[in-house]
């Protein structure tokens, strides 16, 4: 198992100071740059109802510096036109609307068809996010395309950059982490801003899992849909920082419960065997359909996701009562409900749009966020605990402020 965790906020959220909270051990961290070496700086300030002089604290092994912050200033989303309901699925597999909705909470999903493309969806979502953020394409310094279903083996991010009309040729690359991809993208954006001097970073979550589903398998075909969502992460002063902490993990042992592994196919047409080299030329290879052990994935999610969120909250010196919204990867409503119960977050503070879109993998968190922001539910200054989890297996959480 590998994991990463950190405190990425150099300042305590001002909205929480207004709540007159009395907290112990408020931690700060960031990046400082000396020449070409980046140092991670950690320092602690004890708050016990009175102010303490810096000279009274134990000396820090690293310089006490405030770094550049980052904040989320715009979001956008896009979905395919084709809507497929549970009743539609009941026409091709042995299922029903009641059977699906009771077990998953899903009633509809959007599916790519015809001339639609994942790249087109991602570009549309990114344009919407840039428009809300009032950032021009030529002011974008980095495009992160979080997807496990690129339309080119070598990645889709450069095509998003081209579609947006970014004439300065900013860096663009893919992040492959399935349903955890967007959270990893957020943390990566923060690292580029804090340690690399980037100003505007587009983080896009987009997946078309419908292309990798066996539509005769009732256990998986009912779950997935296609979509894209995006956010603009912008550099800001340290006292405006909006990404307070994160907690990231992976465990390769879980791959057996959720995967779409590569399979060896038929020999290439027209090529004979090479008698001197066994197994050459290689056979064609293609990825299998998504294979999932639903019970094991459920157990993994309801155990690990609350732990990750609690860890991230602790690093930010917060509790679940301090957050305004819980925003989880939209995989299954029973998972969302179980995690919320574990964290003592009431239903009215849980964001869910699973019923309308199904599991859209890396797109699910930014898609739900965009709907919540545009409906007026999530407002500037609100604190969000977000978590992604899925194939790999990977999982992680981030505590952030909108706006």
TrEMBL record:
It holds the Pfam family ACP_syn_III_C. Gene3D superfamilies: 3.40.47.10. It catalyses: malonyl-[ACP] + acetyl-CoA + H(+) = 3-oxobutanoyl-[ACP] + CO2 + CoA. Residues 173-252 form the Beta-ketoacyl-[acyl-carrier-protein] synthase III N-terminal domain. GO terms for biological process: fatty acid biosynthetic process. GO terms for cellular component: chloroplast. This is beta-ketoacyl-[acyl-carrier-protein] synthase III. It comes from Stephania cephalantha.
């Amino acid at each position: 198992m590998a994991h990463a965790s950190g405190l990425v906020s150099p300042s305590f959220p001002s909205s929480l100071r207004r709540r007159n909270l009395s907290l112990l051990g408020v931690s700060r961290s960031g990046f400082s740059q000396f020449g070409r070496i980046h140092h991670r700086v950690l320092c602690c300030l004890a708050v016990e109802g009175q102010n303490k002089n810096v000279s009274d604290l134990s000396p820090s092994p690293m310089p006490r510096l405030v770094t550049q912050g980052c904040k989320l200033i715009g979001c956008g989303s896009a979905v395919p036109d084709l809507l497929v309901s549970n009743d539609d699925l009941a026409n091709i597999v042995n299922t029903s609307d009641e059977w699906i909705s009771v077990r998953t909470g899903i009633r509809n999903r959007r599916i790519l068809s015809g001339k639609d493309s994942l790249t087109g969806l991602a570009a549309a979502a990114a344009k919407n996010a840039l428009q809300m953020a009032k950032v021009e394409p030529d002011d974008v310094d980095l495009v992160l395309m979080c997807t496990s279903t690129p339309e080119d083996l070598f990645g889709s991010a450069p095509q998003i950059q081209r579609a947006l009309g970014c004439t300065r040729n900013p860096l663009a690359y893919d992040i492959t982490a399935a349903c955890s991809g967007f959270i990893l993208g957020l943390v990566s954006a923060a690292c580029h801003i804090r340690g690399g001097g980037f100003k505007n970073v587009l983080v896009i979550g987009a997946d078309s899992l419908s292309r990798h589903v066996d539509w005769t398998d009732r256990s998986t075909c009912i779950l997935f849909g296609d979509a894209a969502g995006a956010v603009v992460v912008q550099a800001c002063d340290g006292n405006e920082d909006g990404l307070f902490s994160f907690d990231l993990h992976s465990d390769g042992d879980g791959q057996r419960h959720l995967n779409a592994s590569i399979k060896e196919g038929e020999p290439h047409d027209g090529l004979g065997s090479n008698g001197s080299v066994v197994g050459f030329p290689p056979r064609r290879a293609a990825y299998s359909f998504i294979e999932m052990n639903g019970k094991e994935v459920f157990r993994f999610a309801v155990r690990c996701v609350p732990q990750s969120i609690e860890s991230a909250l602790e690093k930010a010196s917060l509790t679940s009562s301090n957050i305004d919204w819980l925003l989880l990867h939209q995989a299954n409503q029973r998972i969302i409900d179980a995690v919320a119960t574990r964290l003592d977050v009431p239903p009215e503070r849980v964001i869910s749009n699973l019923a309308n879109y199904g599991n859209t993998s890396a797109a699910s968190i930014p898609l739900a966020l965009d709907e919540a922001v545009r409906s007026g539910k999530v407002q500037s200054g609100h604190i969000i605990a977000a978590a992604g989890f899925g194939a790999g297996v990977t999982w992680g959480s981030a505590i952030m402020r909108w706006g």
